[in-house]
């Protein structure tokens, strides 16, 4: 019995591309759009299976439109290969377009079109060769570039400008993918520089730039064409190259920028090439119109070229002045670029940048957060011994009104500048106190220790300091670092406060009860941290030996905290109660004033002469060496001025040679320091990072780490940036590096100093982040360094 034939299904006709676009645009919901696309994709699949060659390119065109809308179209990849192999131009056009959209290096199918591209490059017509070159420039893999490099090299010298332009762009892509192919493209580039065709010329400049950046061997070859490049730039600046490529009255700014960037690469570390371009750079800098953004772009590229080559000093001053004019521009982007560039130049051209200090300070008031932050960084970098007073005044004014996210950076910057360039001790103390009053919650952790040590080492300013701090504490107890310093100072020099010996115009009259009431207020305040209460409790104990009245009130206050929930505060109160009950006869000796901090130079008697002598803060000992006497006192645990989670004031430590050491007849000699071995932390493709260590004898808690980056490979390491992070118990400060380019083949290394403060002498751990460009690729490395030598922290 014969089977009956199956009834034929009704197949809806396939839509044309304009009709499909209209249907999709007419869909009112996403579900309707998906339904239209699914139906049409089914028709396209059926057409591909049936092998309808004349209509294959129309079906693929619709599929490419669906792909651009974000829907899957991977089933059209093999159809692209069939269309590329077709002899018809209409098929090749859609096939190459589909290859550029649907194929990439991650799919093996892209290798199947290599032969088709090779045949089209060798035998095809100009339109077909152009399609093949565009496809190669878009999705050519390293394997394809190696196979087709010779064909592209031959097309670079073809008579047709259309083909040469596209061949140059394909060569640029090949060099980026396979830098070792640079030798093939060196000879044609010199001849292509003589072209008058704009597209070919700008493409050739781009190709030479890629060759120079990725192949150091190409630099000597192209340094010979510097006069030719200078001549092209002179024609652009003086007479104009092509009116159709002018932008806002600037003759072809894109080509000018490309040439300037190439000149910067060729003139770097090469005196002869730099001299050949100096005059032309000066002409560009003086003749370019700054009223248009295109002119500003050319000027900025000129500035970068001037500062990156061995140019004359007058030319560098001209470059800095151009950046200074940028600061007056109304465009925020231009001002930001100028601030960033001046910050990079402040080390090499400090005096030239200093001329624009008033304009930089005005940028602090800009409401834009990124501009004010960059202006703050530049302002801090401009501070020196001659302008410390005026710059600090401006920065303190900015600190009062700056956004919260900038307060910590501003406060830390002012404190560091004051530490380096303070003209007198009194000015230094006033500056730190003002910063603590304005932004005490945002200062560094060592600000309290530094100020207590500074006050302790200035005997002639004890009375002045305690009076100023008492007034500040009476006005505001919310700034915890300020409260801690004030409590310490009142405890140490409370007798000077009560005696009214402050040398102010209006002597301060303070009663004992007022001081005790203020300290009790600090203890009871909900704003006070446990460390702050520890300072206040110790200050009360110190005052028990400095006031003339009865100590019953102090005893009562101390006894209350014997049952405090905070363990550190409770232990401190119990020990102080024991002093009152069992060791009252030892209390005056134990709670006497701490000895002065000793330093190498003679003491300056500022008050006696009625004037303030210049003072160098580096003469002060930042962290006195801990002596056997200090260890003995630690055993008694009676002189801890702060809780366990805060650093005790360094002024409380005893230094070698102190009076107590002589009483105990303990040795005070300091052993000689052995050199600390270095450490290699990074080695990849010729780039090495080595760390060397130095611990200054006068600051045992400070470790100076010098990171040295060297390069033994054949390619320069450019845009090198090293960032570091340490645990919260450490303090890290990164100095400005000596450069951002590590020359190839063992050239001069670049160095960067890292200052690490380790008050707790904890084992050092550090995380490093390196970002740089090497062999034409951007590299980022993040790693942790743990195996520091024990001498760096013990």
Automatic annotation (TrEMBL):
Predominant place of localization: membrane
Membrane topology of this protein: Peripheral membrane protein
Pfam families in UniProt: Adaptin_N (PF01602), Alpha_adaptinC2 (PF02883)
UniProt keyword annotation of Membrane present: yes
Stretches with biased composition (Polar residues): 618-628
Residue span(s) of domain GAE: 674-789
GO cellular component: AP-1 adaptor complex; synapse
Family: Belongs to the adaptor complexes large subunit family.
Protein name: AP-1 complex subunit gamma
């Amino acid at each position: 019995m014969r089977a009956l034939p199956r009834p034929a299904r009704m197949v809806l006709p396939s839509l044309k591309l304009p009709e499909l676009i209209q249907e999709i645009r007419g869909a009112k919901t996403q579900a309707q759009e998906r339904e239209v696309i699914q139906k049409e994709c089914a028709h396209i699949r059926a057409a591909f299976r049936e092998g309808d060659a004349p209509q294959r390119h129309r079906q693929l065109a619709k599929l490419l439109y669906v792909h651009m809308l974000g829907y899957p179209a991977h089933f059209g990849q093999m159809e692209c290969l069939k269309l590329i192999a077709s002899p018809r131009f209409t098929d090749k056009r859609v096939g190459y377009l589909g290859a550029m959209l649907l194929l990439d290096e991650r799919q093996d199918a892209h290798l199947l079109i290599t032969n088709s591209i090779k045949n089209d490059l060798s035998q095809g017509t100009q339109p077909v060769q152009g399609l093949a070159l565009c496809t190669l420039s878009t999705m050519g893999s390293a394997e394809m570039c190696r196979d087709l490099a010779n064909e592209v090299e031959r097309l670079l010298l073809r008579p047709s400008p259309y083909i040469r332009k596209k061949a140059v762009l394909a060569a640029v892509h090949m060099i980026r993918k396979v830098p070792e192919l640079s030798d093939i493209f060196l000879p044609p580039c010199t001849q292509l520089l003589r072209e008058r065709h704009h597209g070919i010329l700008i493409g050739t400049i781009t190709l030479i730039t890629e060759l120079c950046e990725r192949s150091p061997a190409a630099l000597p070859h192209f340094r010979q064409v510097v006069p030719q490049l200078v001549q092209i730039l002179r024609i652009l600046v003086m007479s104009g190259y092509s009116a159709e490529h002018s932008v806002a009255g600037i003759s072809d700014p894109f080509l000018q920028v490309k040439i300037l960037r190439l000149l910067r690469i060729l003139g770097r570390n090469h005196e002869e090439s730099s001299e050949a371009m100096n005059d032309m750079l000066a002409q560009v800098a003086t003749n370019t119109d700054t009223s248009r953004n295109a002119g500003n772009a050319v000027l900025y590229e000129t500035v970068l070229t001037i500062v990156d080559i061995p140019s004359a000093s007058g030319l560098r001053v001209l470059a800095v002045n151009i950046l200074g004019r940028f600061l007056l521009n109304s465009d925020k982007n231009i001002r930001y670029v100028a601030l960033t560039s001046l910050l990079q130049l402040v080390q090499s051209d400090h005096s030239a940048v200093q001329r624009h200090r008033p304009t930089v300070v005005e940028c602090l008031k800009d409401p834009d957060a990124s501009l004010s932050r960059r202006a703050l960084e530049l302002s801090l970098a401009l501070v020196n011994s001659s302008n410390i007073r005026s710059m600090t005044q401006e920065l303190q004014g900015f600190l009062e009104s700056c956004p919260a996210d900038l307060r910590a950076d501003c406060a830390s910057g002012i404190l560091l500048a004051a530490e380096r360039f303070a003209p007198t001790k009194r000015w230094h103390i006033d500056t730190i106190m003002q910063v603590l009053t304005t932004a005490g919650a945002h200062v560094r952790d060592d600000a309290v220790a530094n100020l207590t040590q500074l006050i302790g080492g200035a005997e002639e300013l004890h009375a002045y300091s305690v009076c100023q701090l008492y007034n500040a504490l009476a006005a505001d107890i919310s700034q915890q670092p300020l409260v801690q310093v004030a409590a310490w100072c009142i405890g140490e020099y409370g007798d000077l406060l009560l005696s009214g010996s402050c040398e102010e115009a209006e002597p301060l009259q303070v009663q004992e009860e007022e001081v005790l009431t203020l300290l009790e207020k600090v203890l009871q305040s909900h704003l006070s941290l446990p460390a702050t209460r520890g300072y206040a409790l110790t200050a009360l104990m110190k005052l028990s030996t400095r006031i003339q009245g009865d100590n019953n009130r102090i005893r009562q206050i101390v006894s209350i905290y014997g049952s405090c929930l905070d363990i550190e505060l409770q232990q401190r109160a119990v020990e102080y109660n024991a002093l009152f009950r069992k060791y009252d006869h030892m209390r005056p000796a134990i709670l006497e004033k701490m000895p002065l901090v000793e330093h190498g130079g003679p003491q300056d008697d500022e008050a006696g002469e009625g004037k303030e002598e210049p003072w160098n803060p580096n003469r002060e000992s930042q962290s006195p060496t801990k002596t056997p006497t200090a260890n003995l006192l630690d055993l008694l645990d009676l002189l801890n001025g702060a809780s366990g989670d805060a650093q005790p004031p360094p002024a409380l430590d005893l230094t070698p040679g102190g009076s107590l050491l002589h009483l105990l007849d303990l040795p005070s000699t300091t052993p000689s320091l052995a050199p600390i071995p270095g450490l290699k932390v990074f080695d990849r493709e010729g780039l090495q990072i080595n760390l060397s260590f130095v611990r200054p004898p006068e600051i045992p808690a400070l470790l100076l780490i010098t990171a040295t980056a060297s390069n033994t490979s054949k390619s320069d390491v450019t845009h090198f940036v090293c960032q570091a992070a340490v645990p919260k118990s450490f303090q890290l400060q990164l100095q400005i590096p000596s450069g951002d380019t590590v020359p190839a083949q063992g050239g001069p290394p670049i160095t960067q100093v890292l200052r690490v403060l380790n008050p707790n002498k904890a084992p050092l751990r550090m995380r490093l982040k390196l970002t740089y460009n090497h062999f034409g690729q951007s590299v980022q490395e993040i790693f942790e360094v743990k195996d520091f030598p024990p001498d760096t922290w013990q």
